[in-house]
Amino acid sequence: RGVAHLEPLIATGELAKYRDRSGADPMLSFRAAANHMAGIHADAGPDAVTRYKAIREQERAVFRRLIPVLAARGRGEERLFVGMVLRDLPPAERFEQLGALIDELAVGPRARSRAVEYVRGGYTVIRDADTPGFKALVDRLAKSPNPDLRGAADLRAVAERGTRSASCT
After folding, report:
1. How would DSSP label each residue in 67-120?
2. What is the average per-residue pLDDT within 94-122?
3. pTM for the whole structure
4. How far is residue 30's CA from residue 136's CA, in Å, rounded to a whole number?
5. Fewer CB in 10 Å around end: N or C, the chain?
6. For residues 83 and 79, what is the distance between their CA atoms, to the nearest angstrom?
7. Is 50 strand, coil or helix?
8. Could you report the per-residue pLDDT of 51-89, keeping only the tens digit for each?
9. What is the pLDDT of residue 8?
10. CA 48 to mean position of chain CA atoms
11. CB 111: neighbour CB atoms within 10 A?
């Protein structure tokens, strides 16, 4: 529920007005809270796991609504929420969601760079490049009617460059 309450502030850009002394906004504080849903242990039992998954789906729905609004501003604010949508998903589902987000945001300038940013931003790792989900994402982009997205279809090279540059820092 906390994320849903923050949604209007995030969508309007007013969340930045509520920074604490350290400069953190309430979203950062919310994500860093000790009781934030960082995951669930399998030993929690099937009912708890089912409830956790349902709550995560509600949270993802909020983030999915915010992403196009933030992407339209052109400042890259949506990247945090892309990561939060994809967090803790198995690779096949993660790549399906990533492909859907890229397709949804394919209109307008920066479609190719946005796709590359999302992949390079840590939403995939090189070990995932040989998975069926990653290959399906590349195939999806290669067949896109948007020429910018077809140009982003060499995501394996993007992922490799991202891994090399991350290991150099």
Report:
1. HHHHHHTTSSTTHHHHHHHHTT--HHHHHHHHHHHHHHT-SSTTHHHHHHHHII
2. 82
3. 0.72
4. 34
5. C
6. 6
7. helix
8. 888 888 888 898 898 898 888 888 888 888 888 888 888
9. 76
10. 24
11. 21
